[in-house]
Amino acid sequence: MKMLFRYIVFSLLTCCTGQWELFAQQRLVVDKSGKGDFKTIQGALNSLSETSSTPRTIFIRKGGYPEKLYIEKSNIILEGEDRNSVTITASIARDEWRCGHMDDWGVATINVGANDITLKHLTIVNSFGFDYNTPPVIVCASDTGANKVRTLKKDGHQMALRTMNMATRLAAEDCHFRAYGGDTVSPWETGNGMWYFRDCIMEGGVDFYCPRGWAWAENCEFISHSGTAAIWHDGSGNKESKTVLLNCRFSGFDGFQLGRYHKDAQFYLLNCHFAKNMRDQAIYRVPTTNTIQWGERIYYYNCHRDGGTDYTWYANNLPAGISTADITPKWVFGNRWTPEQEKKKQP
């Protein structure tokens, strides 16, 4: 009856005038026990109109949701009741997915192909590496070997969040992104991508936070399970693109490494804290045939190693003429985008 009522209201509003946006502003409730508007998150997403000029909220009540999500409609807020109690989980090895698919659409727990998406108070898990026991052996038609057999690795690519199809604006607040392998958080759009993360936890393997374009991460925690780098950046599409990490914390296995790049990149780390067992290894350039147009651009300010002597490579070295007061989301994104979380902080 609830959905019938909503459909009638929507029909009346949309048939009478194109200016009504009441339905576009609705708040749908997902409750796996059946006490909301939908039992599944994807069901709620599918019910929304294709376009909206205002945000639509899908509120997710406490529970575990074993779903792979496809977000293809813009202006959507996925809001959990509580980060520790709302978990969206799928088990996907990218190496297996690409055996039967031409691209990465569908390779993550949450696949985003739209703009102005906000994630709040959620735990998003790609559980493949955590579930790993006996190494899975699969037949892979795309392999070049004679037997077409592939053994999946525990620490291979396992994406919890992946943007594609010209998605360029996404924000996440108070979210926990979990995977054991690489590329956990993969917002990829080199030319125009703008990504905002605040109060989030990210964990995984090599390059598990790997934004392309412009990125801001504030008060976030990064946990390395394996691999040769925690963070990565591709800023090759525009000389001004950059990734900023402010008030962030890094920890992981003994000897975990901070970061790397193999295309043009620009890193700013301010007021960050590193666990004592982090390797004495600066963010480094991977040997590559790619042309590095703008040289090494890796900047630090007031970063420290907890419980140990600071390494010399993250001594203060901000570019001349740039102070910490200058480095804000506005400085990163310019006039192209102001995340809703930043609008609320403005007087």
Task: List the topology elements.
Blueprint: H1 2-16, E1 27-30, H2 41-47, E2 56-60, E3 63-65, E4 69-71, E5 76-80, E6 86-90, H3 94-100, E7 108-112, E8 117-120, E9 123-126, H4 128-131, E10 137-139, E11 149-151, E12 159-163, E13 169-173, E14 176-178, E15 185-186, E16 194-198, E17 201-204, E18 214-218, E19 221-224, E20 231-232, E21 243-246, E22 249-252, E23 259-261, E24 267-270, E25 273-274, E26 284-285, E27 298-301, E28 304-305, H5 329-333, H6 340-345
Parallel strand pairs: 1-2, 2-5, 3-6, 4-7, 5-8, 6-9, 7-12, 8-13, 9-14, 12-15, 13-16, 14-17, 16-18, 17-19, 18-21, 19-22, 20-23, 21-24, 22-25, 23-26, 24-27, 25-28
Antiparallel strand pairs: 10-11
Question: What key attributes describe this structure?
Answer:
347 residues, alpha/beta, nine-stranded parallel beta sheet, 6 helices, globular
Question: How do you describe this structure in short?
Answer:
The protein has helices spanning 2-16, 41-47, 94-100, 128-131, 329-333, 340-345, and strands at residues 27-30, 56-60, 63-65, 69-71, 76-80, 86-90, 108-112, 117-120, 123-126, 137-139, 149-151, 159-163, 169-173, 176-178, 185-186, 194-198, 201-204, 214-218, 221-224, 231-232, 243-246, 249-252, 259-261, 267-270, 273-274, 284-285, 298-301, 304-305. It is of the alpha/beta class and 347 residues long. It is globular, with a radius of gyration of 21 Å.
